[in-house]
Design goal:
CATH class of the largest domain: Alpha Beta
Pfam family, one: Fer2
CATH topology of the largest domain: Ubiquitin-like (UB roll)
Number of helices: 5
Radius of gyration: 16 Å
CATH architecture of the largest domain: Roll
Strand content: 5-15%
GO molecular function: 2 iron, 2 sulfur cluster binding; metal ion binding; oxidoreductase activity
Keywords: 2Fe-2S, Iron, Iron-sulfur, Metal-binding, Oxidoreductase
Protein name: (2Fe-2S)-binding protein
Helix content: 25-40%
Bound molecules: FE2/S2 (inorganic) cluster
Strand order of the largest sheet: 2-1-5-3-4
CATH superfamily of the largest domain: Beta-grasp domain
Shape: globular
C-alpha cells in the first residue's frame, strides 16, 4: 500500500508500486485534469506539484511519491481562483486545452518563488503547446504576474517578450480513496 496526500486528502493506493503516478491519479483517483501526453518526459502535459515542486507525473512511480504532498490542477484553487487560471480565462488561451493543466501547474510552482518569471525561466519549462497558443499563453503569464503582484514577496523583472509555450485548467474537485482498508 502506498500512502500520500492528494489535494489535501490522505490517499492509500493498493496498486503495483511501480504504477506511474499519472495513471494512479487519473485511473484510480479519477483526477483526469492531469493529461497524458508523450509518456516520455518530453511534453510537460502531465505536470503536477509534488512537495512544492513541479514534477512530471509520467516519470514518477507511486512508490517514488510515498509520503508526498501532491497537488493536481483540481486542487490548485477553489473555483479556478488562482491568478493563472483567471488569466487563462481572461486571455482565452485554450485551443484544444490539452496542455493547459500542465502549463498552469508548472507555472504555479515557478511563480510561487518568482511571480514574474524571466523569458529564460519560461523557455526552460518542458511544456509544449501543439496548437500554437503560445502568444496567448505568454499574455496570460504577464496578466497572472500582475494579478499576483500584490502578494509577491520579491517582485522580479516582468515578462516582456518571452519565447515559450503554454495553456487552462479543468476543475472538478476530486476525491476517491482507492483503498479499502
Ligand atoms: S506525458 Fe509526461 S512529459 Fe509528456
Ligand atoms: S496543445 Fe492544444 S491548446 Fe495547447
Amino acid at each position: 500500500m502506498t500512502r500520500m496526500t492528494v489535494n489535501g486528502e490522505a490517499i492509500r493506493y493498493r496498486l503495483d508500486p511501480d504504477t506511474p503516478l499519472l495513471f494512479a491519479l487519473r485511473d484510480a483517483s479519477n483526477l483526469t485534469g492531469t493529461k497524458h501526453g508523450c509518456f516520455s518526459g518530453d511534453c510537460g502535459t502531465c505536470t503536477i506539484i509534488v512537495d512544492g515542486r513541479a514534477r512530471l507525473s509520467c516519470e514518477i512511480s507511486i512508490a517514488d511519491a510515498e509520503g508526498s504532498e501532491i497537488v493536481t490542477i483540481e486542487g490548485l484553487s477553489a473555483g479556478r481562483a488562482h491568478p493563472l487560471q483567471q488569466a487563462w480565462a481572461a486571455e482565452q488561451v485554450s485551443q484544444c486545452g490539452r496542455c493547459d493543466p500542465g502549463f498552469i501547474m508548472a507555472l504555479a510552482a515557478l511563480m510561487r518563488s518568482t511571480p514574474s518569471p524571466t523569458p529564460e525561466q519560461l523557455s526552460a519549462l518542458p511544456n509544449l503547446c501543439r496548437c500554437g497558443a503560445t502568444p496567448r499563453i505568454l499574455k496570460a503569464v504577464g496578466r497572472a504576474s500582475r494579478l499576483a503582484a500584490p502578494l509577491a514577496p520579491t517582485p522580479s523583472k516582468p515578462v516582456e517578450n518571452p519565447s515559450s509555450r503554454f495553456s487552462n485548467g479543468s476543475s472538478t474537485m476530486s476525491q476517491i480513496v482507492p483503498d479499502d482498508s
